[in-house]
């Protein structure tokens, strides 16, 4: 009886005439809010540190702590939510994001900020872990790439506008006001999800053993290793762009906003290009994107005192970085198609763990050496990630 119910449900969910694209749009907006919330401290690092009595390196750990909790949530999400309708799980995770934003905006101390960021990490890890599998249930199989493209457009929008708007508004209404500004947007998204998401009964309860069993597949193990090195390298640099622009480039606040806007807008081009190329050149993208990103990161140091040079480098950086998750998500959908929820949880855990490690490593190098060391360490990690990918043979199932 249960199997029959599921067989009836999935075609109904997959029908494009039942407003599923609205549901995909609601998920894309939630992704935008999650990305904006997770990385907003990048553009507000200096005022947050000053207000809460922390170093910039310590404030950078606010990103790392959300990554830590996202790791554990993504690993256990299929177990925790294994018997709950996915619709209510996604809405519940979005509600957690709302609670964390309010707590961040009112944080009286660095400790409370870190607690709020931990709550945000739970929302991030859970939502991302279920996103690919949810999309595969919402739309017909031949339109999954299009739906994933919409999801990553939400990512690109947040990357494009969150940092520069956060930096600009932070100078006007303060960093707390910026986080309060996200609250009504998340409320709108909650309403949209409630209206558009269909019922998605769980197919089966997952297990942690099932998730880690994927790592016994050689191509998955190499893939996760390359993912971690690539994303750790990217976020070692990205987390500390504001200190770099302030101390190395000596950018003013308006200039800082423009630099970050250029980086973010380039993400649209990177997402589009990555989506266009990934079907035919997936393994080439997985190899060359981190290599090129490493080169651009070092060029930012080379041209660090020349504002036009830094502007061009940041635009290139934003485009290259935006294409990386498109390539890895496509690899996941092809390599772990038999268990997308466990595969999605594993991929999200690897990415979030790398964000945590990358942010921590970058902060240590910044506090104890210099910003140049942070960027050179980031470039080294990116190169190592590309070397793991190689010609793609290790990643083929």
Concise summary:
It is a multi-pass membrane protein. The chain has 397 residues and is mainly α.
Query: Helix count?
Result: 14
Task: Please provide the count of β strands.
Answer: 0
Number of domains: 1
| Assembly category | single chain
Q: How far is the N terminus from the C terminus?
A: 35 Å
Q: Estimate the strand proportion.
A: under 5%
> H/E series, N to C?
HHHHHHHHHHHHHH
Average pLDDT level: 82
CATH topology: Growth Hormone, Chain: A
Q: Which class in CATH terms?
A: Mainly Alpha
CATH homolog superfamily: MFS general substrate transporter like domains
Structural class: mainly alpha
Helix content estimate: over 70%
Please give the largest β-sheet.
Answer: none
- Which residues sit in consecutive blocks of at least 5 with pLDDT less than 50? 1-17
Choose one word for the global shape: globular
Radius of gyration from the CA trace?
20 Å
- Supply the CATH architecture: Up-down Bundle
Organism: Pseudomonas graminis
Keywords: Cell membrane, Membrane, Transmembrane, Transmembrane helix
Subcellular location: Cell membrane
Domain Major facilitator superfamily (MFS) profile: 18-397
Molecular structure report:
It is a single chain. The protein is mainly alpha-helical and 397 residues long. It has one domain: Up-down Bundle (Growth Hormone, Chain: A). 84% of the residues lie in helices and 0% in strands. It has helices spanning 2-14, 20-43, 45-52, 56-80, 86-105, 110-138, 144-196, 208-213, 218-238, 241-247, 253-302, 307-335, 340-368, 371-389. α4 packs antiparallel against α13. The two termini are 35 Å apart. The model is unreliable at 1-17 (pLDDT under 50).
